[in-house]
Design a protein that fits this description.
about 150 residues, transmembrane helix, DUF6223, signal
């Protein structure tokens, strides 16, 4: 039995999201060990504290794009499910990065990327939720078909 193309792309997106999360955690461990050294360095560029929140913000942005495409009816229900999943990943991971960031904005600890991830993740969840609610209303129920 072949799976539809949209379902396959959602599976690939979720698999990629999981891989990015694992790599992010692997990169965040050395960053946490050397946080005091990073505070003394120049914080321009992509520091190891910014890699994780930036990757999560990109995943949340992908979720928002999936949600917007599903809302405009250019993608199906599976894109809405992907939007909700990636949005929840962005909100939760962004909140964790924001809670564990030492220092404020501009210190190289990824607080800005974490805030962006939370906002984009919430947007993706809302857009995906709208599409899922609309698709539930549009489907006829068994009870309606019997009458």
């Amino acid at each position: 039995m072949r799976t539809p193309g949209a379902l396959t792309s959602v599976r690939r997106a979720l698999a990629a999201a999981g891989a990015v999360l694992v790599v992010t955690c692997a990169l965040a461990a050395p960053a946490a060990a050397h946080a005091h050294v990073q505070a003394a360095r120049d914080t321009s560029g992509l520091t190891s504290g910014r890699v994780g929140p930036t990757a999560v913000a990109v995943l949340a942005l992908a979720g928002a794009v999936f949600g917007a495409l599903a809302l405009r009816r250019r993608a199906g229900r599976s894109a809405a499910v992907a939007a909700v999943a990636l949005g929840l990943l962005g909100v939760v991971s962004g909140a964790v990065f924001a809670a564990t960031a030492d220092g404020g904005l501009g210190t190289g600890n990824g607080l800005g990327g974490a805030v962006v991830a939370v906002v984009l993740g919430a947007l993706a969840v809302v857009l995906g939720g709208f599409v899922l609610a609309r698709s539930r209303r549009a489907r006829p129920r068994v009870r309606d078909l019997q009458s």
